[in-house]
Amino acid sequence: MKSINDVFLSFLEKTLGTANVVSDARMLDALAAGSFRPAALCRPGGAEEAAAVVRLAAEHKVPLVPCGGWTAQAFGEAAPAGALAVSLQRLDKLVEYNPDDLVATAQAGMSFGALQAALAERGQCLPLDAPEHATLGGLVATDRHGPRRLLYGSLRDMLLGLAVVNGDGVPRRCGGRVVKNVTGYALEKLYIGSLGTLGLLTEVTFKLRPLPETAGVQELTAPNFELGFGVVRELAMRLPFAAVTASFPGKPFSAQLGLEAAPPDHARMLREIEAAVLLTGQGLEFSGAAQTRADADEYPARPRRLRAVQLNNGQEVVPELLARLTWPCRAGDFAGRMAKVDVAAQEAGFGALMAFFDFPGQVSLELFAEHGVAQGVPGNLDRLVRSLRGEGCAATVAWKSAAQPLTEKVFGPPRPEWKLMREIKRQFDPAGILNPGRFGPF
Question: Is 310 helix (H, G, I), strand (E, B) or coil?
Fold first, then answer.
């Protein structure tokens, strides 16, 4: 790969206009995310302009980093140095919306919040857990999902089609704009979670859902983890919750139960929860809140997140988050796994941890500095990650602070399927300019 020079910038400005090319050092410093600082930024205004940028970058061997709402630039391996950031935020229009078919097509730079606002006017939604300012293309590129996949499924279940510019600079379409679309290969699924390594997404089509008539988050607490998790697991197996998130450590245990349903079903689930609590007894408590609409961000147990650490002298300090790991896990294995992780994290020098289990089986682990604030050398993240992976845990480093060293690969050691993934990358991006190295070797 080559660095950006004045000749390249001149061609870029002629293609997009001077106002849509940013090369000012102070502005680029403000855009830095993690270890990534773009050498320049451009803002194409449509699919044809995006294609022109890709062709120009391929000709000059300049790496491209697609970006939207800048909510996930720290995810994955380090972005290539000297890269051109391609912002798609000018592609922010709702292209087509068919409420009767529960289908919407929008440009990839449209924000998630703007789409939700437009859909809400017709009593519909895209049931994902994401920040409002995240872009739709970014959601697809990072495979954004959250606790509500328990009821609604993942983004893969909602994506019907897309438009993309591959590394050869040719605009293409995959999938369709209707729910019953079974012609040909489902190539649109390849781009889910691809982190922009296969193409620049310019348009996406989603299958929608009606807004629930009632929505709320109930909290269930218990004196200890074993008691509380057992009750929550049994409830999650037989009731159609929108989301269920349990926290660890469990002293006291806390779980958030998301309910989204018609009023009679909502009331029935509340009665079922209350009955399970009364039957178990032993200090179980249930918030029993009324049917109220709640922000989806409450599902990841934010009210229970670690907010303060008490030192030996009694002083309380605000904990400093150093890293966040994620991995798939069965509910029956969660307690045993976390008992080992708790010990391993202490041995690796982390002062505290907080984990969240999203049913049916996803763990998010947050690691904090010793004594609440970083003093001296941060925890040994490499040691902890190696320990987890050595025991068969497919841990991904979802985020880490700039102060936290890491030499282990974010997505783990090479796997057999990576050979096929490299070949797909070569076919879709022959010049190798699209976010090279974001998955490590490709």
Answer: strand
Architecture of the domain delimited by 6-89 = 2-Layer Sandwich (3.30)
Contact by Cβ (8 Å): 209, 296: no
Residue 92 in tokens: 């922010």
Give the span between the Cα atoms of 43 and 65, in whole angstroms: 12
User: One-letter amino acid identity for 389?
Assistant: R
Specify the pLDDT at position 232: 93
Q: Give the closest residue to 112 by CA, choosing from 84, 82, 145.
A: 145
Quick one: pLDDT at residue 296?
38
CA distance 13 to 44: 11
Ramachandran region of residue 91, left (φ > 0), alpha (ψ -120 to 50) or beta?
A: beta
Let me know if the fold of 214-302 is the same as that of 311-400: yes
Q: What is the CATH number of domain 214-302?
A: 3.30.70.3450
- Can you tell me which residue has the tokens 């409420």? 99
Handedness of CA 316, 324, 67, 435 (dihedral sign): positive
DSSP 8-state class, residue 101: G
Give the tokens for residue 14.
């002629």
Q: Any idea which fold 94-210 has? A: 3.30.465
Residue type, 232: V
Long-range CB contacts (< 8 A, 24+ apart) of 127-130?
127/151, 127/152, 127/158, 127/209, 128/155, 128/158, 129/243, 129/296, 129/297, 129/299, 129/300, 130/71
Structural domain boundaries in the chain: 6-89, 94-210, 214-302, 311-400
Q: Using alpha carbons only, what angle is made at residue 357 by residues 274 and 409, rounded to the nearest 5 degrees? A: 175
The class that CATH gives domain 311-400 is: alpha beta
Asked if residue 156 has pLDDT above 60, the reply is yes
The token pair that represents 360 in the structure block: 């049916």
pTM: 0.90
Contacts of 182 (CB under 8 A, 6+ apart): none
Please state the φ and ψ torsions of residue 67, each to the nearest 5 degrees: -145, 150
Q: Helices (H), strands (E): how many in the chain?
A: 12, 21
- Residue owning tokens 């984990």: 355
Q: Which residues contact 109 (CB under 8 A, 6 or more apart)?
A: 68, 87, 88, 89, 90, 91, 92, 135, 136, 137
pLDDT confidence tier of residue 375, bands split at 50, 70 and 90: low
